[in-house]
Amino acid sequence: MTTFYEERRLDRKNEREEDRRDRLAEAEAARIRDEARAEQRRKDEEARQEEERRLRAERKREKARRKAERKKTRAELLAKLGTEGDTIGALVVMACGIAPAMFFQLRALNGENLPGVISLCLAVMLEAGAWVATVSGERAKKEGRPVGRFRVVMWACASFAAVVNYSHAPESSGGWLAWVLAAASYAGVFFWEVRGWGRGRHGTKSTRTKAQRREDRRRRRHDRTRRRRFPTVYSRYTDILTAHPFGTIDTEEAWRAAWRDEHGAEIATTARVVARRGHADRALAAAHGVGVETLAVEQLLTDLFPPDGGDDGPGARRSSGGPNGGPGRGGRTAKTLGRKGKQAIGRVTGRTAPKVPDKPLDAAHIAQVEALADILGGAAYLSVKNVRQAIGGGNYRYAMRLRDHVKAERKNAR
Predict the structure, then answer these.
(1) Compositionally biased, Gly residues: which spans (predicted)?
(2) Is residue 122 part of a domain?
(3) Which residue range is the domain that position 161 belongs to?
(4) Which element (helix H / strand E) includes 285?
């Protein structure tokens, strides 16, 4: 018996212990659940606050963006108003001109016992006709189309409305009111035209400077003068420009080609000019008692041996009194020209001068002429004149030999 009750007591004790542990476990589980719920609520609250902060920041950014856009829009509007001040002024003046013109047109039409609607339609037709042509002309300007037809219609409609206002104006001392009402019909289109004077060809503000506009006027005046002064050359000039694709030939080059085609010479040179030059040379030679050939020799010597002296010392100053050998004072004679002058005169007159050994070509001079050829774009552009300038003067034959030497070297190198 004793054993039975002790075992039962131990079982109850174990059951109570198990119950206690179960309650502890449940309490722990409940605590963990409460902590988890509290943590979740804390996270949810943080997320909600973060979302609110994000939304506030986004609303703030959106507000700042809209404010910046409004500020930009206002600035653009003010800038446009600043650049379109002429348009605003024209519109104000146009409205002030249309209102009285419409009123007195309605009054004149109503005086003819027309129905009110008919009078209104006719008055609008008279005033609006000019504005249809004005708007159409403005669009044509923007699209680069001719506007002459639109302007004719615009002024014709405005003139018709002005005649109506003038003829039906109320009586006034001196008739000034009739002129004012007629001017009111013209005011709108006139001031719109004034607005267009300050703008470019396509209705935009002109970007050309005053100097550019002056240059354009001078160019047009020059072109008109050419057309009047040289009609045959100008006709050939237009043929050349028309025959070539647009923009592929320079206008001045076309003019030079047209002049050569018509006169066979360079610009400003004609057969009549050449004949006058010959006559002037003969008259000058006759005045000094020398032949024309002497004048040609003088010009040749001046071209070949300018006053830089060359390699024979400073050249003599040319006389202002006439050609060499003539009666002019201070003339340069063959004696003062040195060896080169005597040789040149000998070549012209048929006499031969004693031969002089050729001076060897200087290597430094050859290098200078080769550099000059590179600058000019090839040895073909070398001349005795620019060779002498490159080496600082010198004998004419020496410069010619230098030029020929460099040309031969370049030709052999190819």
Answers:
(1) 322-331
(2) yes
(3) 84-197
(4) helix 271-288
